[in-house]
Design a protein that fits this description.
heterodimer; A: 12 helices; 64% helix; B: 106 residues; alpha+beta; 2 strands; 55% helix
């Protein structure tokens, strides 16, 4: 049914900029939702706005952004939860692996490049192509941790490039944790390979996680040895992402973010088990926070399913 | 059930309404207490529709922009009625005491 009420009543002279600002805020909604209902939301926003308003109110802006993110979370649940969770977990792990290698780029440029390629392939859902690339990098990392000249000759110890400083690549801790991390990525890709068509593409924004994660000690002695501001930024990012996983699990009543957090936690637990008793109290508190938030992310979807608040 | 959800369902008791209509009606019914931001309103409408408590009655195009009219389902009507009766019973627990003749509050 089409109703024409004459020219649409504009909200004063400022409707142009206000409409543009509302359009920008509506980008927090997924594209499919915007295509279906974006114009309706925009019309309602302009109808309820005061005549002279040119800036969206803080309350309306906050409401649009949180509702948009909530809608995004719910739209993500269209794919099978466990496969999507493994895909996300494998991506986060491969980003952490890349970030570990980045400070050593001049010593091992080929392997940093291949690691970055693996991240991009996983991000775009090309898991079958990523599998041989990750396997190659995994073999090389095993070679470095064991001090063997496999695949190519690398001068060991590989020291970090400026502005990074500190230990040689995999100079602290044992070889088991890095191997477990890479084995988990390879295993995850093997599980996902037959289901490649059903996998979604991940946002390029994930690449922004590489700089804060670069320079993190793969042996987990960050608070014992690492530079404080960089460690604080990395830990804040980790905690922030896990809190987002808890919120997403609660909002969408879906366990996929908990699956991803669990995949990420396995190599971290291995690091602490391999170097048992050697970490500082702050390192252990950091681990406790990660475990607690991962458990919370796993619990909230079930609780949200049982206690639906309308 | 949250207060905004209660008022959204309550204002649909009189018939189908579109988004702007629901915001105005909710404000009026709640005596200006519940002012729904647009993002919150449409989030609530999506959740209520997914739960089968409301449904889209019809769509119109006004000035080139689509507008959905929402209406209560039987399930939604039953739920908001049950909630109203529950609140009435809960309020009577207090009002029955303070308005009783001889009460310290009367």
């Amino acid at each position: 049914m089409t109703v024409t009420t004459g020219p649409r009543v504009r909200s004063g002279a400022g409707a142009g900029p206000l409409e543009r600002r509302y359009r920008r805020l509506l980008r927090s909604y997924p594209r499919a939702y915007r295509d279906a209902y974006g114009r309706e939301l925009l019309a309602t926003l302009l109808e309820v706005a005061e005549p002279e308003r040119t800036l969206p109110s803080a309350r309306e802006s906050f409401s649009l952004v949180t509702s948009g993110l909530r809608t995004r979370m719910i739209h993500m649940t269209g794919r099978p939860a466990w496969a999507d969770g493994i895909h996300l977990g494998v991506l986060v792990l491969s980003i952490a692996h890349l970030a570990t290698l980045v400070p050593y780029a001049t010593s091992i440029p080929l392997w940093v490049g291949l690691s970055a390629l693996a991240v991009v392939l996983i991000m775009r859902g090309r898991v079958r192509l990523a599998l041989p690339v990750v396997t190659l990098v995994a073999v090389k990392v095993c070679a470095i941790t064991l001090g063997r000249p496999w695949l190519d000759l690398t001068l060991l110890p590989a020291m970090p490039d400026p502005p990074w400083s500190g230990k040689a690549l995999y100079g602290g801790g044992g070889p088991v944790a890095p191997m477990v991390g890479y084995a988990l990525v390879v295993l995850g890709l093997l599980v996902l390979a037959p289901r490649q068509r059903g996998l979604g593409r991940r946002s390029w924004l994930w690449l922004f996680a590489v700089p804060p994660l670069a320079g993190a000690d793969p042996a987990g002695f960050d608070f014992s040895d690492g530079p404080w501001p960089h460690t604080a930024i990395r830990v804040s990012l980790e905690i922030g992402v896990l809190l987002l996983a808890v919120w997403a699990g609660h909002t969408a009543r879906d366990p996929r973010w908990a699956v991803a957090a669990g995949v990420r936690l396995v190599p971290i637990l291995t690091v602490y088990a391999e170097n048992f008793g050697l970490h500082s109290e702050r390192d252990e508190a950091h681990l406790a926070a990660l475990v607690l938030l991962t458990l919370l992310a796993a619990a909230v979807p079930y609780r949200a399913k049982q206690h639906i608040v309308l | 059930m949250s207060e905004p959800t209660y008022f959204i369902l309550a204002c649909l008791l009189d018939g189908p309404l579109h988004g702007h209509g629901i915001i105005k009606q909710t404000l009026e019914l709640s005596e200006n207490r519940v002012k729904l931001p647009v993002g919150t309103l449409y989030g609530a409408l999506d959740r209520l529709a997914a739960s089968g408590l409301i449904t889209v009655d019809r769509e119109e195009i006004v000035d080139g922009r689509p507008r959905r009219y929402f209406r209560l389902t039987d399930e939604g009507k039953g739920l908001v009625t049950a909630e109203a009766l529950r609140m009435q019973q809960a309020s009577s627990v207090v009002t029955g005491r303070i308005l009783r003749p001889g009460s310290a509050f009367s």
